[in-house]
Amino acid sequence: MASILCLETSTEVCSVALSVGGRAVTVREDTSGKNHALLLARFIEEVMKETNLPFSGLDAIAVSGGPGSYTGLRIGVSTAKGLCYASSLPMIAISSLEAMAYHVINKPYIFGIEKKESVLYCPMIDARRMEVYASVYNHAMEKIRRIQADVIDQGSFASFLEIHKILFFGNGADKCKTTLQHPNALFIDHITTSACYLAELAETAFNAGNFVDVAYYEPYYLKDFVATIPTKNIFHSNKDTNLLQG
Q1: Which of 11, 18, 25, 94 has the maximal Cβ count within 10 Å?
Q2: What are the residue boundaries of the structural domains of the chain, listed by start?
Q3: Rounded to an integer, what distance in angstroms lies between the CA atom of residue 83 and that of residue 40?
Q4: Cα separation values, 38 from 44, 54, 212, Å
Q5: Could you tell me which of 65, 92, 44, 126 has the C-alpha nearest to residue 203?
Q6: DSSP state of 105
Q7: First to last CA, the chain
Q8: Do domains 3-95+193-227 and 97-187 have the same CATH topology?
Q9: Bridge partners of 17?
């Protein structure tokens, strides 16, 4: 029965949970989408203090490995690496989408739905505009479509929707409701990422020895990061203005 500190920063949610034996025993979360860098350290301190567990009492650090926000993932993974180095702990990385899917598939009663073999599950993370990061799982948590970035239109997921009902959820699903009008497209509201959703998957990974290389691990960004200078801050002149991309 492992004690694992779980960190989730892949979306607007900044979340920290302490998992014992695959169950989150305490959690701190903020859904405002701001100050992940400041809140994450504070939440870690509060969670550890509340449980009276020193870092030497932890067995591993688990972190959301993407896809999701470039900045959020960098903050979470960098923090996890620092904790692992400082405390000589192994690191576990878990897909943000898989964690959401696992939560919904294994706790359908929370959402008033039945677990049926014919139903598919599609967790979605907002990737701005009409684009989402998404994957598709069946009732046994088997991935039947790989994780990818989708630009949502009326034909999205058509091949699946012709045969199956699909439950869409996550912060990316909210903006798809008016576009995906197929009768087999169903939506579950108010599902966000959470460190609590990492707990059971982290316990399974720990028991199987599925750790990532702390030195070389990189989160799954899926898309390249592009940073731009806000328009109001651009100095207009006859000279070329360079935008930072990378």
Answers
A1: 11
A2: 3-95+193-227, 97-187
A3: 12
A4: 11, 21, 25
A5: 92
A6: H
A7: 42
A8: yes
A9: 6, 27
Hunting for tokens 């996550």 — which residue is that? 170
CATH topology of domain 3-95+193-227: Nucleotidyltransferase; domain 5 (3.30.420)
pLDDT tens for each residue of 64-112: 999 999 999 999 999 999 999 999 999 999 999 999 999 999 988 777 7
Least confident of 12-26, 78-92, 177-191: 177-191
Apex 68 CA angle, 62 and 70, nearest 5: 95
Domain 97-187 bears CATH identifier 3.30.420: yes
Q: Check residue 79 and report its DSSP letter.
A: H
165's tokens: 């009902």
* E-only strand ranges, the chain: 3-8, 14-20, 23-30, 60-64, 91-94, 120-126, 131-137, 143-151, 166-169, 185-187
CA distances for 119 relative to 56, 99, 114, 129, 159, angstroms = 43, 18, 9, 28, 14
Rounded alpha-carbon distances, angstroms, from residue 112 to 77, 101, 177: 34, 15, 19
